C-alpha cells in the first residue's frame, strides 16, 4: 500500500430496527466497493453472525471472532479472514458476542474497545473502507461501532414507522458525538427494500427526502428476491446474480458512496 494512501473510512451500518437491510447492505455494499477496486474489511458486530454466514463463513469456520477482539484484546489482524472476493475481508462474529455487555460490565473505556482495536488498521492503511454491521439495538456493540467509526450509514426500510426510528437513531448519534466520538458524521441514509408497486414506499421515500435532503442517497435499493436468496448460497448478490436489479443498485450505491467521499476529501475542513 502506498505510504500516502488515505486512512480507511470507517462506516458503522446502523439502525436499531431489525430486518431493515443492515446486513444485506454491509455485505453487498462491501462486495460492490471491492468490485470497483476498493479494499474493504467487513466487521460483523452482530451476535447473530448473519454477515459472516452470508459470506459463506459458517460457525465452525470461525476460529477467532470479534468477541476475542472486544473481550481479550486479540489483535484484529488475527481474526480477519479472506472471503471468496478479492479485496474483501471479513472479521466474523459468533453468538458469544451477545455476552459482551455483561462481560465488560463497568470496565473503563468499555465503549472504546473497537476503536482501540482498529487504531493499528488506521495507521497501516491497508483498507479503503471498513464497514461495521451493527446489531438491531442501540446497545454496547452499537456504541462501540459508533465510537470507532468516522460516520454512520443508515439503511432505512420504506415502511410506515421508518422516520420515527430514524429520529431516535439520530439522537443517539448526537449523544455519541457529545460523549464518545466528537468527529462522528452521518454518512447518509439509504432507502432499502423499495417496492415500486406499493404507494407507501413512494410516500415514505418522499417524506425521508423532504426531511433529510441530500443526506439520503439518490440510489434506492429495490426489493429483489435474488438479493434475499444470495446469503443462503454464502455469496453477495453481485456474485450470485450480477445482473439482477439488487446487484445493480448496490453497484450504483458503491459508486455514489465513493463519489461523496471524494467530494468530502476535496473540501477543506
Ligand atoms: P438487518 O440486518 O437490518 O436485520 P437484513 O439485511 O438481514 O436486515 O434483511 C432482513 C431480511 O430482508 C433478510 O431476509 C434479507 O434477505 C431481506 N432483504 C434485505 N434487503 C432486501 C432486498 N433489497 N430485497 C429483498 N429482500 C431483502
Ligand atoms: Mg443484521
Number of helices: 11
Uncertain ranges = none
Shape: globular
Going across the biggest sheet, name each strand in turn: 3-4-2-5-1-6-7-8
Structural class: alpha/beta
Q: What CATH architecture label applies?
A: 3-Layer(aba) Sandwich
Q: Give, in order, the helices and strands.
A: EHEHHEEHHEHEHEHEHHH
The level 1 CATH classification is Alpha Beta
| Hetero ligands | adenosine-5'-diphosphate, magnesium ion
CATH topology-level fold name: Rossmann fold
In this structure, how is the largest beta sheet organized? 8 strands, mixed
Q: What percentage of the residues does DSSP assign to strands (E)?
A: 15-25%
The CATH superfamily is identified as P-loop containing nucleotide triphosphate hydrolases
Q: Total domains, how many?
A: 1
Helix content: 40-55%
| Number of β-strand runs | 8
Mean pLDDT figure: 93
User: What Rg, in angstroms, do the CA atoms define?
Assistant: 17 Å
How would you describe the overall organization of this protein?
It is built from eleven helices and eight strands. It has 269 residues and is an alpha/beta fold. It has a single domain, classed as Rossmann fold. The chain has an eight-stranded mixed sheet, sandwiched between helices. Helix 7 (162-179) links the parallel strand 6 and strand 7 (185-194). Helix 1 (22-35) packs across helix 11 (245-266) and helix 5 packs parallel to helix 6. The radius of gyration is 17 Å and the shape is globular. The model has no long low-confidence stretch (mean pLDDT 93). Bound molecules: adenosine-5'-diphosphate (ADP) and magnesium ion. Residues 18-24, 50, 136, 192-193, 221, 223-224, 227-228, 246 line the site of adenosine-5'-diphosphate. Residues 22-23, 46, 50 line the site of magnesium ion.
